Amino acid sequence: MKKLLLGNEAIARGAWEAGVNVVASYPGTPSTEITENIAKYEEIYSEWAPNEKVALEVAIGASVTGARAMSAMKHVGLNVAADPLYTVSYTGVNGGLVIVVADDPGMHSSQNEQDSRYHALASHVPMLEPADSQECLDFTKAAFAISEAFDTPVILRVTTRIAHQRSLVELSDRENVPKKEYKKDIMKYVMMPGMAIKRHVFVDKRMKDLENDREVSAKVNKIEYNDRKLGIITSGISYQYTKEVFPQASVLKIGLVNPMPTELVKEFAANVDQLLVIEELEPYMENFAKQIGISKVEGKKFFTNQGELNTVKIAAAYYGKQPETATLSEAVEAPARPPVMCPGCPHRGVFYVLSNMKIRVSGDIGCYTLGAMAPYASVDTCVCMGASVSMAHGAQKGEEATGSDILPTVAIIGDSTFMHSGITGLVDIVYNKGTSTVIILDNSITGMTGHQQNPTTGYTIKMEEAPSVDLVKLCQALGIKRVRVEDPFDLPGFKKAVSEEIAAPEPSVIISKRPCALLKNVKYGKNPVINQDKCRKCGRCMKLGCPAIFKEDGKYMIDDAICAGCGLCVQMCPFGCIEKED
């Protein structure tokens, strides 16, 4: 049976067909749909872990017992999971272990562009890279087979375009894979220096054996000879672009990008006149070709290492002109759609208050990063998950150490991000006698990645009831004596709370508690209306930055189609011109 599947759906299906038993992940675009679809299969235990490191460690534990296990994450999540990744490369596996990483060229939903192929290279872990949904399924199954055959974890790398494109997939039944026998093996699984030294020898031999395995290579790497004047080495989504722009060229499509197939690359290079590498981000394959002595190879001479490639970019870079099919018959200008917090978002009141108070804000990863945008321009920094808490502490200590004036600073972090990597930062503040104020934006869900559950929501990935972490008690247990829960829709009350806490001579936590306006159970009642007879056209309501409020023909109005009815704007009007029924 064939079915049209997203790349992420096909990976989930491939894991199911491969007989996977355990999947643990942390949501992160563009990888989220993998584990969301895994959760639909009753035969598989699946979970959202607090972070990617924990998720991979859960999968490693399952693998050691003999079960097939998988963990999925986005590229920056692999940084968090790098600690166990680099060592499980040494221990190897028992049951098959696959790590799926979704890179984000173009930074559609990420704070950086990074090329996870270098993680595979540095950790000595094999990496497969599919080029369509069928290969997403097939390579997932192949990854488990390679994992068990070569006693290694395997990374499956996709990019945004592969994860989110749809193509036809041939479906099969689930393979009933017997659980491997668990045997205690201290020399294999306990990575003390004496054991690790010996395992490193095994790792190097394993990678060489895999590189020389012709059966594996034949399944995932292929040469397509056509006109031999131009030969192209490529992989992943770049293969699809290559076939469109250079239909007559010879192509070496790499499916196993670590270890690279040395002899196959040499053979291909010897049989073409000109050799071109087309790859997104870093010159990974181009550098490899040069390292093995192929001097005629070209790649980044034509193509940037920034952002995504596409057929138009490739043709323009190589031929100096766009393909005719890419030329629009008439100019089309799409309206600008800058990112903005949704109508009714509980974070809006927080950033309005902080912006007016002129407070320095140490920001974090989530919907609330949008507090850096106009009209608030409130967030001063944003680096990675959990960094807001630690950086606020560092800012205070840096100013103390240099005798500078200590600027009022708060850290902003979401409930899911706090569970992910904010707790340890808060411990650091308490332990090292900091006085920072941390605002936890508890919107009852993991918001930006599409409403996934987390340890504070009371539900698992399969929507089973679960114990929920009490943030107040947790912060108190960490040593924070000043913990308060505030409503971000109460603007005067929230401002008072912030003023009191930043003035306190000890660390504090404010929990801004309001559920995400997009949750199905959130109802704010009737929408407010602007009484045009009373309105003085002062424009104060626009300072909220709510997309539901707009100005037309000199009048301020509320768009009923997108207004969530939160009523925050009612507090903004000093003349009582915005009215809302209770």
Q: Tell me about the biggest sheet?
A: 7 strands, mixed
Large-scale geometry: globular
Structural class: alpha/beta
Q: Please give the share of residues in helix.
A: 25-40%
Number of helices: 21
Task: Report on this structure.
The protein is an alpha/beta fold. The chain contains 21 helices and 24 strands. The strands form six sheets. It has a seven-stranded mixed β-sheet with strand order 3-2-4-5-7-6-12, sandwiched between helices. Helix 1 (7-17) packs parallel to helix 7 (133-150) and helix 17 (387-401) packs parallel to helix 18 (415-431). The model has no long low-confidence stretch (mean pLDDT 94).
Concise synopsis of the structure shown:
This protein is of the alpha/beta class.
Features:
six-stranded parallel beta sheet, 582 residues, 24 strands, 18% strand, 21 helices, globular, alpha/beta, 36% helix, seven-stranded mixed beta sheet
Write the layout of secondary structure elements.
Layout: E1 2-6, H1 7-17, E2 22-25, H2 32-38, E3 45-48, H3 52-65, E4 69-74, H4 75-80, H5 82-91, E5 97-103, H6 117-123, E6 127-128, H7 133-150, E7 154-159, H8 160-164, E8 166-170, H9 186-189, H10 193-211, H11 214-220, E9 222-224, E10 227-234, H12 236-245, E11 249-253, E12 256-258, H13 262-270, E13 274-278, H14 284-291, E14 297-298, H15 311-319, H16 347-357, E15 360-362, E16 379-381, H17 387-401, E17 409-414, H18 415-431, E18 437-442, H19 471-477, E19 482-486, H20 491-503, E20 508-513, E21 529-530, E22 549-552, E23 555-558, H21 568-572, E24 578-579
Parallel strand pairs: 2-3, 2-4, 4-5, 5-7, 6-7, 10-11, 10-13, 13-14, 15-16, 15-17, 17-18, 18-20, 19-20
Antiparallel strand pairs: 1-8, 6-12, 9-11, 21-24, 22-23
Helix pairs in contact: 1-2, 1-7, 3-5, 12-15, 16-20, 17-18
